[in-house]
Amino acid sequence: MIVAFSVSPLGVGEDVGAYVADAVRVVRESGLPNRTDAMFTSIEGEWDEVMDVVKRAVAAVEARAGRVSLVLKADIRPGVTDGLTSKVATVERHLAEG
Predict the structure, then answer these.
(1) Which residue has the higher pLDDT, 46 or 78?
(2) Angle, nearest 10°, between helix axes 47-62 and 17-29?
(3) How does pLDDT run across 60-75, given as a tens digit for each residue?
(4) Ranges for the Thiamine-binding protein domain (predicted)?
(5) Which of 17, 18, 38, 60 is deepest in the core (most CB within 10 A)?
(6) Which helix (H) or strand (E) segment is 22 a member of?
(7) The whole model's pTM is what?
(8) Is the pLDDT of residue 80 over 90?
């Protein structure tokens, strides 16, 4: 499964980069395949391990902010691995074909 999620503190002002970095650090230290862009962090693995990482990422932000927003989207497709790479490669292949 692939989960794309965004976690942000609420009520701390506009500069939330340090809080988001706390969450991304948890994801990167998990050892699961992941990718971070300007809007979301995507992580790939089995249901329980991915949700555990998301929960710990939220807790990392919550430790410094009293209120947290979480947006989550999941692609639940048993048996598929390396989806973070293969899904993008498929789109790039179609773009290259014109």
Answers:
(1) 46
(2) 150
(3) 999 999 899 999 999 9
(4) 3-92
(5) 60
(6) helix 17-29
(7) 0.90
(8) no
> Is the distance from CB of 6 to CB of 70 less than 8 angstroms?
yes
Element (H, E) at 19: helix 17-29
pLDDT at 50 over 90: yes
Instruction: Name the 3-class secondary structure at 33.
Output: coil
Please write down the HEC assignment for all residues of 46-97.
CHHHHHHHHHHHHHHHHCCCCEEEEEEEEECCCCCCCHHHHHHHHHHHHHHH
Joined tokens for residue 83: 């989806």
pLDDT at 23: 98
Please give the pLDDT value at position 81: 84
Distance of CA 77 to the CA centre of its chain: 17
Q: Which residue has the tokens 């499964």?
A: 1
